[in-house]
Design goal:
The protein has helices spanning 8-13, 15-23, 70-80; strands spanning 3-7, 27-32, 35-40. The protein is an alpha+beta fold. It has a domain at 1-48: YefM-like domain (YefM-like fold), CATH 3.40.1620. The radius of gyration is 16 Å and the shape is flat.
């Protein structure tokens, strides 16, 4: 399995290419300020129990993620930018 490391800004700008590389079996480590913080990995690298067969398998997994008032949370995030 091939592996590479890129910065967060480059990852943001090249996400479609990162997804293509993951589909080909390459793992990409994403770093922020020189510290690894995330990875784009091929699904084949995950154990079968961690793979979602469809988007419906993910339904409800974000419940409560945005707090009691999702609109206010999103608005606050926009204001922070």
């Amino acid at each position: 399995m091939r592996r590479s490391t890129i910065g967060a800004e480059e990852a943001r700008q090249t996400l479609p290419a990162l997804l293509d590389r993951a589909a080909e079996g390459e793992t990409t480590i994403i770093s922020r300020r020189g510290r690894p913080c995330a990875a784009v990995v091929p699904l084949s690298a995950l154990p079968p129990a961690r793979r979602a067969a469809s988007m419906n398998d993910l339904r409800g997994t974000g419940r409560g993620l945005w707090g009691d008032d999702p609109a206010a949370t999103i608005a606050a995030g926009r204001d922070a930018w």
